[in-house]
Amino acid sequence: DTGVSQNPRHKITKRGQNVTFRCDPISEHNRLYWYRQTLGQGPEFLTYFQNEAQLEKSRLLSDRFSAERPKGSFSTLEIQRTEQGDSAMYLCASSLAETGTGLNIQYFGAGTRLSVL
Amino acid sequence: QKEVEQNSGPLSVPEGAIASLNCTYSDRGSQSFFWYRQYSGKSPELIMFIYSNGDKEDGRFTAQLNKASQYVSLLIRDSQPSDSATYLCAVSGGYGQNFVFGPGTRLSVLP
Predict the structure, then answer these.
(1) Of A22, A42, B16, B83, which residue is 20 to 30 A from A35 by alpha carbon distance?
(2) pLDDT, tens digit, 9 for 90 and up, residues B20-61
(3) How far apart are CA A106 and CA A3, in angstroms?
(4) For A104, which of B4, B92, B100 is closest by C-beta distance?
(5) Strand B11-14 and strand B105-110: pairing?
(6) Greatest alpha-carbon span in chain B
(7) Does A45 touch chain B (CB under 8 A)?
């Protein structure tokens, strides 16, 4: 297993178009997270899944954003009607949450860089 | 609103010196604390985590946690030019909770 995989690595789109990103987590990990990162800032939480259930969404997440993890394995993040402000790096992370200690170490993929023209 | 604060830097240290990176957090219920290193254009890479008060050492890296002061730090001994990166502090409220990241501190180690 080579870690968290994200595709595509780069996406250029025109304003108003829809885009979809894919994330394949580390195979035994039950948790999958999506973050957005803009230049000079830390990653900002968007949403996360435990297995196939979406357990939390950021209040900052526009309804143009939707995420799925249909079989508890890979996940997709879709942005509808993209805006220039959506330009950012979209990071996926996965973890195996330990029920005993509560420790939850997240491992990140390489990210998808979105540019909206 | 849970907040994590870091000095944005850049923090410049000479090669071989100790680099000290600091992070404060607002949520007293926070339980786990993580340091990630991020090279320009790359994804965050885990360096260390800590969840008990005190020090935790791993090679050249030492994480320090003081929950009473809501403060966590990372010391890098014998700094190398390859340590030049942005260091992100992340805080978690506990089991199942997502991370809140600070803005990161940019470290520059000068040869």
Answers:
(1) B83
(2) 999 999 988 888 899 999 999 899 999 999 989 999 999 999
(3) 11
(4) B92
(5) parallel
(6) 42
(7) yes
Give the alpha-carbon dihedral of A11, A12, A18, A21, to 10 degrees.
Answer: 10
Do B46 and A41 make contact, defined as CB atoms within 8 angstroms? no
CA distance B78 to B90: 24
**Segments of A8-108 assigned E as strands:** 10-13, 19-24, 31-37, 44-50, 53-57, 65-68, 75-79, 88-95, 107-108
**Do B96 and A43 lie within an 8 Å CB cutoff?**
no
Q: Which amino acid is at B12?
A: S
Give residue B61's identity as a one-letter amino acid code: F
Query: Cβ contact (<8 Å) for A110 and B99?
Result: no
